[in-house]
Amino acid sequence: MRTQVAIIGAGPAGLLLSHLLAQGGVESVVLETRSEEYVAARIRAGILEHSSVELLESVGLGDRIRAEGDHHRGIYLQWPGERHHLDFVDLVGRSVWVYGQTEVQKDLIKARAADGQEIHYEVTEVELHDDHVTFTDKSGQSQRLDATAIAGCDGSFGPSRQAVPAAETYEKVYPYSWFGILADVAPSTDELIYAWHPNGFALHSMRSATVSRLYLQVPNGTDPQSWSDDRIWDELATRLGHGQNGWKLTPGPITDKSVLPMRSYVQTPMRHHNLFLAGDAAHIVPPTGAKGLNLAIADVALLSKALIAKVKEGDERLADRYSDDAQRRVWRCTHFSWWMTTMLHTSGDPFDAQLQLSQLKWVANSEAGATGLAENYAGLPIGY
Ligand code: FAD
Ligand code: DHB
What we know:
- By secondary structure, the protein is an alpha+beta fold.
- The protein has a domain at 2-71 and 96-171 and 263-345: FAD/NAD(P)-binding domain.
- It contains 11 helices and 19 strands.
- The longest helix has 28 residues, at 317-344.
- The relative contact order is 0.17.
- The site of 3,4-dihydroxybenzoic acid has 11 residues, from strand 14.
- Residues 2-337 form the FAD-binding domain.
């Protein structure tokens, strides 16, 4: 088999890249170890930045976001006794959309199917070489895929990251995890609540008018099954301030429980010869601030342009700059995610707690502080 770009991974980075390349007249083949059903249903991120929505809309993927997504002007930031609304539209003229990664995946899968995109699901033994990839297809046949370029979009556990020799890596592991639940209950808030509490951080997010998504800071190694539903709702009520100023958290049936460890990781360069890394294959952020999915989208927006110029015109200039260009935004988002995480998660140290509260009060009450958070949260323009 031969194609112009071999894409490893059918997550949001890989599928969106195949879509952008097709729109630019470049063909690709996507290889994915999991099944189509699995990649469409994997519950992960839920917030799309302004520029992610603009990009998806510009390539025909915005209809369902507009119809079924939920536009949010900002977020609530709170600590015991106080809740402040930060209005990103007023502060920076940009905003965010609540639209689950599962829905982004479904839209991409549908659009790629309508376009006749070749995607091989349930492949095994994927091996990267300079100008080709070998793999075993679903029926057990060994295959060789020759390509002008290879895009490593295979997330944090895929083989692409290791195929960049002598890469520099930067890593920070946090001493806490997120316990996430999905619940069949209307959200108790119109916009997301990020709550600092002496017991630990809590976040009230949502997926739709009838589905809530909530998170609790828990110690690393927590077994999600060791928490009863009542204990989860009680702790969420405490940390989110049930009863304060008449606000109520409405509990409901929990349909999913999972624990997510948190780390920051950056690998550079994001290119080695014909191999280009994008999304979680090159970097991981802790989830606070909802940057992971948006960063994957921003990477492939740059990468698609570089690969179209390289494959169609033999023009390597954007490809040569890709890693440096992408890393500017990667480090901005790495800093923002670290900052949100360390401002909101408790460490048990009373000195740290006072610094966090001071920082939160400044962000909530100073226009300069609020603008900095809003600019990063709503997202810098693609190409920043
Ligand atoms: P992925 O979505 O990981 O896609 C990579 C794909 O490559 C996968 O489909 C994988 O099966 C495939 N693959 C792996 N190995 C191979 C191989 N050898 N050959 C072929 N294919 C392969 N971000 C947020 O902003 N908010 C959140 O709440 C949030 N929650 C998260 C929860 C979890 C459990 C995880 C893991 C991540 C979460 N993220 C969150 C991060 C966000 O989901 C990711 O940043 C985003 O999925 C990155 O997209 P990607 O396409 O780069 O990688
Ligand atoms: C969600 C995840 C985040 O990391 C975040 O900061 C906000 C929302 C979510 O899954 O809904």
